[in-house]
Amino acid sequence: MTKQSGFTLIELMIVVAILGVLSAAVVPVFKYYQERTERSAGCKQGLLQAAVEMELFKGVNQTYPPVGLFNLPNVDLSADEYTFFIDLGGSGNMATSYQLRCEPSAGFDTGCGTLTYDNFGRKDAPAAVAPNTADSCWR
Fold first, then answer.
1. What is the DSSP pairing of strand 123-124 with strand 115-118?
2. Which domain, by its residues, includes 121?
3. 81-94 pLDDT, tens per residue?
4. Percent of the chain with pLDDT over 70
5. Selection from 115, 97, 99 nearest residue 42 by Cα
6. In this structure, is residue 4 part of a structural domain?
7. d(CA 57, CA 70)
8. Which of 18, 78, 111, 127 gives 20 to 30 Å between its CA and that of 4?
9. How many folded domains does the chain comprise?
10. Please, which residues have CB within 8 angstroms of residue 54's CB and are 6 or more apart in sequence?
C-alpha cells in the first residue's frame, strides 16, 4: 500500500485563518507607520526647511519675506498628501513673525492633522486626536 502525502482541507483552512488574523493585526500598524513616514518626509521636513529659509531671509533683510516675494528654491514642498501655508504677522511691509502650516489631504493622517511651526520654534498639532499629542506627531 502506498502512502499519500499532502495537506488536508482542514489543515489548509487553519493556515488561511491564521493568515487572516495576522493580516488583520498588521495592516493598521503598517498604515500608521506609513502615515508617520509621509508626515516626516513630506510635512515636517518641508516646514523645517522653510523655517530655515525664512530665518536666512530675515538675517539679511531684517524682516521676514512677504508671501508674494517668498521663493523657496532649496525647499521641496511638493508632497502629494500635504498643502503648505505661510501666515505672516506684522504691519505694512515689515513681517515680524510667521507661522508655517502643513495640512494633510482629506482622509490622510487623521491622527495628527495640521502641523504648525512658528518663528519662535514652537511646534504644534492643534488638530491631534487622542492618543496623539503635538510631541508624538512631531516625533
1. antiparallel
2. 13-138
3. 777 777 787 766 77
4. 85
5. 115
6. no
7. 9
8. 18
9. 1
10. 64, 65, 70, 98, 100, 119
